């Protein structure tokens, strides 16, 4: 939620500096994420929690400031002027869909651009000004937190409204000219022959305000929050209106918002009120009582806040506290605070305004749990591995778990780009490399992160993968780094099969969870040999197709006395191996070695057709 | 405050016990420490950011 300082000041006096104000509001739970200075004004960016729809408005935020500063809100709303003119309009409401419906007809308006001050306000909220009528409804929505909609009255066929649930599959084109197939149970308004509104989310193109509009029906309603949320999720379509309505709008806010909007329209677009004020509801929406026991408050918060301070806080929030002899405070909750339902809610209000920073600092008491938790993970191994890769020139990145493609789709994706759980780290690493390409020649990136395997949700499995991409290192360099890493973990596997040559360079991906399971438990000391080794070098002519790794293994297998075989040198088709013989129990002689040597020659000749270099 | 219904669900008597949930992400502290104005920079793979650390 964006809030310009100059706009907040229209409703409450503010003495604090913007930085102080942002800090104080964050302290009371209205997280200030960003403060920017634009054209001589200050714009706050707040994070609004789902339980506080009232804060999705400038006046709502001004009320929090007023509570902190112990000030009154300056807000005067004139009633809608009454009128003798009566244009026909009939509404057939369903109270399970719209609990409170209100509207009024205004005739003879002139559609034009909004005045500069109004356009400026919308621009500050990053909204695009459209025309005076639409702009005013948006302005009041953000001012008071009540969504409003204006219809072209002459486009309402039969001047009759039917409020219904969609059957599913109906076509609907919104004011911004996008077509939707409606989900079942979305709330809709029909006139006598077509759907003209997707209630709580978006208005219809067929009844929207155009340059030719003369007469309008101005409407605001308390829509069923669950149905609005479901339809909005099914369509992956959220609007400023739906995010207020799905959280629960102030049921008593309809008429003041309608009056505020109608008066602004009369002032900025001309025209006159041309109908009665439709105020359709089954029951009155009364503020409710909620009591708070002082001893309960103290026991929950663990500190004693003076009674006067408690009532002062509750009073600053317009909760009308009255204290009786039994130390019970009875509050009357205004309808815009529908998050306050139980005693604990009031305790939280007191605590956050008292200030969490004012609670004394105490050490936790009791035993510290030492039992290993089931989801325990030893991050030291992660650190060790990352350290090796970092020392080899890699930079670690963290990317999102959601991608555009995959098998496991999430139910309510925020967008097409983040629709599936990633089965590999490859896509994101490649993207990250491309993102860096304009600025860097040599890019080496690594990620250790969760991937989501399996084709269906039933066989889905989470695993950690360790992957990297490089456009600077060769296949062999990467292989060397991974060998070093395997050695560190005590794993005797060939990392070569996990390395892939891709368009952007070299990519590797290791199943980290699996690797960890292969890890040798603990290193144990092997006593140093008492007797000296015998070493010799052998040069063979080796056909190109034979892998060196395989030869090293095969040579070593020929005798227990061979403790180490390495490739010493290679040139064209010849390879020289360095062989170390050693016996832990005695000194070796040439007589011990020569049968082994013979066995190596014979074996290599028979198996690989390799001969000794003459 | 943890809603008493949540405590009931995990079989804790809310008339005897209460819960207090709070927290701040490590990333938030990091942004303060390094005077960064946007949390999302920490998950941006731009090497021009990463190489500063």
3D structure, described in words:
The complex is a heterodimer of chains A (614) and B (53). By secondary structure, chain A is of the alpha+beta class. Chain A contains 17 helices and 29 strands. A five-stranded mixed beta sheet of chain A has the order 4-7-10-11-12. In chain A, strands 5, 6, 13, 14 and 15 form a five-stranded antiparallel beta sheet that branches. In chain A, strands 19-22-23-25-24 form a five-stranded mixed beta sheet, sandwiched between helices. In chain A, helix 4 crosses helix 5 and helix 5 packs antiparallel against helix 8. Chain A starts with a strand and ends with a strand. Chain B has one domain. In chain B, 34% of the residues lie in helices and 0% in strands. Chain B has three helices and no strands. The mean pLDDT of chain B is 88.
Task: Give a quick account of the main beta sheet of chain B: strands, pairing sense, barrel closure.
Answer: none
Main beta sheet of chain A? 5 strands, mixed
- How helical, in percent, are the residues of chain A? 25-40%
Shape of chain A: elongated
What's the mean pLDDT score of chain B?
Answer: 88
Structural class of chain B: mainly alpha
Overall radius of gyration of chain A? 37 Å
Quaternary status: heterodimer
Averaged pLDDT of chain A:
92
How many domains of chain A? The number is 5
Q: What share of the residues of chain A does DSSP label as strand, in percent?
A: 15-25%
The assigned structural class of chain A equals: alpha+beta
- The tally of domains of chain B stands at 1
Cα separation of the termini of chain B: 37 Å
- How do the strands line up in the largest sheet of chain A? 4-7-10-11-12
CATH class of the largest domain in chain A: Alpha Beta
Q: Which architecture of the largest domain in chain A per CATH? A: 3-Layer(bba) Sandwich
């Amino acid at each position: 939620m964006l809030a310009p300082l100059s706009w907040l000041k229209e409703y409450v006096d503010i003495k604090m500096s913007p930085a102080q104000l942002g800090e104080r509001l964050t302290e009371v739970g209205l997280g200030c994420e960003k403060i920017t200075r634009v054209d001589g004004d200050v714009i706050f960016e707040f994070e609004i929690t789902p339980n506080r729809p009232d804060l999705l408005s400038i006046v709502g935020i001004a009320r929090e400031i007023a509570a902190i500063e112990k000030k009154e809100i300056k807000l005067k709303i004139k009633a809608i002027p009454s009128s003798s003119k009566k244009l026909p309009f009939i509404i057939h409401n369903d109270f399970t869909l719209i609990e409170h419906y209100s509207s009024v007809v205004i005739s003879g308006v002139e559609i034009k651009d909004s005045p500069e001050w109004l356009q400026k306000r919308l621009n500050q909220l990053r909204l695009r000004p459209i025309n005076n009528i639409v702009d005013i409804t948006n302005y009041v929505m953000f001012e008071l937190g009540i969504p409003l909609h204006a219809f072209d009255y002459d486009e309402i066929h039969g001047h009759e409204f039917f409020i219904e649930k969609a059957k599913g599959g109906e076509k609907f084109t919104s004011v911004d000219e996008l077509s939707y197939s409606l989900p079942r149970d979305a709330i809709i308004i029909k006139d006598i022959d077509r759907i003209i509104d997707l209630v709580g989310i978006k208005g219809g193109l067929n009844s929207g305000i155009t340059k030719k509009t003369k007469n309008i029906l101005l409407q605001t309603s308390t829509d069923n929050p669950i149905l609005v949320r479901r339809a909005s999720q099914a369509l992956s379509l959220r609007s400023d209106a739906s995010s207020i309505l799905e959280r629960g709008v102030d049921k008593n806010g309809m008429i003041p918002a309608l009056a505020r909007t109608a008066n602004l329209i009369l002032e900025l677009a001309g025209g006159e009120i041309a109908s009665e004020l439709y105020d359709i509801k089954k029951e009155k929406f009364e503020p409710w009582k909620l009591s708070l026991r002082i001893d309960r408050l103290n026991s929950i918060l663990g500190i004693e806040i003076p009674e006067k301070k408690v009532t002062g806080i509750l009073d600053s929030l317009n909760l009308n506290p009255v204290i009786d002899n039994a130390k019970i405070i009875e509050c009357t909750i205004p309808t815009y605070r529908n998050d306050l339902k139980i005693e604990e809610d009031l305790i939280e209000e007191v605590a956050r305004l008292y200030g969490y920073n004012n609670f004394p600092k105490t050490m936790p008491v009791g035993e510290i749990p030492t039992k290993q938790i089931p989801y325990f993970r030893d991050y030291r191994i992660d650190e060790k591995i990352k350290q090796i890769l970092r020392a080899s020139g890699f930079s670690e990145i963290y990317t999102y778990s959601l991608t555009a493609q995959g098998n496991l789709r999430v139910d309510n994706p925020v967008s097409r780009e983040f629709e599936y759980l990633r089965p590999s780290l490859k896509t994101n690493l490649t993207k990250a490399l491309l993102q860096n390409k304009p600025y860097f020649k040599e890019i080496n990136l690594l990620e250790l992160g969760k991937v989501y395997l399996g084709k269906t949700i039933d066989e889905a499995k989470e695993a950690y993968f360790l992957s990297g991409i490089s456009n600077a290192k060769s296949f062999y360099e990467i292989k060397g780094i991974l060998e070093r890493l395997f050695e560190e973990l005590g794993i005797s596997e060939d990392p070569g099969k996990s390395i892939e040559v891709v368009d952007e360079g070299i990519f590797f991906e290791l199943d980290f969870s699996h690797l960890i399971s292969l890890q040798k438990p603990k290193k144990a000391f092997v006593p140093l040999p008492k007797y000296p080794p015998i070493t010799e070098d052998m040069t063979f002519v080796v056909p190109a197709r034979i892998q060196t790794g395989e030869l090293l293994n095969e040579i070593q297998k020929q005798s227990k006395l061979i403790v180490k075989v390495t490739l010493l040198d290679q040139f064209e088709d010849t390879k020289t191996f360095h062989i170390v013989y050693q016996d832990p129990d005695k000194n070796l002689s040439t007589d011990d070695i020569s049968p082994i040597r013979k066995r190596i020659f014979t074996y290599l000749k028979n198996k690989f057709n390799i001969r000794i270099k003459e | 405050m943890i809603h008493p219904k949540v405590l009931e669900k995990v079989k804790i008597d809310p008339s005897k016990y209460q819960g207090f949930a709070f927290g701040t992400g490590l990333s938030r502290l990091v942004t303060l420490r390094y005077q960064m104005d946007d949390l999302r920079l920490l998950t941006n793979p731009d090497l021009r950011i990463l190489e500063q650390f």
